[in-house]
Q: What sequence folds into this?
């Protein structure tokens, strides 16, 4: 929170979300979105993000400075997800402001609350979905996981929309601006450095955790693996899956 020209204190947040085919940016003052820009291209995150910022977001950044950056950390496709996170970290470093990550499913849940328990699901490709279960307050109570859609609990409504930057703003608004832990994210690198179990280990590590460090949440092992019989340190024994 900062005061400008003796006026009221304003919390200005930049949100960056690239966990789906959308490249989405938004800036909000005290939780109210004042500018947003989006582009839909599953392979165009790198090309889109700078242009969206320059054309729409930057002109809105007059007056009070940005006080923090929030980014969606997935789960999502490897390349696009990293583009948004790297961008968020870079601008936060340049502005010398804190940056936090939010599970993108949590952001969708916050913006689409239901009267009872519900599931948020997102396309994970390979005929699979990312999913998690939330209670009526938008709190995650199980997940996130990745797997076949048949693994989703039956009898619960499913919200199947992708995350957008304004959803991150909505999620962050659930945390009091006066909360000292608001910009003190939970480190996730050590707990989640071993993937490929369908998200079970990730789900256990994230139980009760919301604000995370700005690094990707992956629920799968890498698409490229190296055979233990490899004789060449770089290329031999590479298996594509």
A:
């Amino acid at each position: 929170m900062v005061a400008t020209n003796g006026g009221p204190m304003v919390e200005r947040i930049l949100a960056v979300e690239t966990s789906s085919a959308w490249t989405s940016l938004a800036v909000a003052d005290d939780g109210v979105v004042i500018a947003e820009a989006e582009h839909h291209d599953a392979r165009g995150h790198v090309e889109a993000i700078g242009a969206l910022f320059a054309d729409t977001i930057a002109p809105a950044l007059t007056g009070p400075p940005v006080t923090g950056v929030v980014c969606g950390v997935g789960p999502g496709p490897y390349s696009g997800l990293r583009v948004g996170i790297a961008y968020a970290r870079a601008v936060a470093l340049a502005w010398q402001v804190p940056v936090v990550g939010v599970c993108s499913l949590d952001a969708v849940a916050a913006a689409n609350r239901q009267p009872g328990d519900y599931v948020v699901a997102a396309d994970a490709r390979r005929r699979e979905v990312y999913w998690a279960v939330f209670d009526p307050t938008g709190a995650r109570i199980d997940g996130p996981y990745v797997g076949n859609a048949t693994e989703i609990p039956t009898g619960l409504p499913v919200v199947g929309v992708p995350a957008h930057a304004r959803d991150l703003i909505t999620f962050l608004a659930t945390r009091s601006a006066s909360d000292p832990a608001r910009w003190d994210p939970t480190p996730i690198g050590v707990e989640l450095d071993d993937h490929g179990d369908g998200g079970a280990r990730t789900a256990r590590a994230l139980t009760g955790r919301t604000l995370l460090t700005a690094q990707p949440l992956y629920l799968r092992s890498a698409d490229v693996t190296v055979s233990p019989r490899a004789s060449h340190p770089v290329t031999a024994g590479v298996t594509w899956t």
Q: What stands out?
A: The chain has one domain: 2-112+161-240.
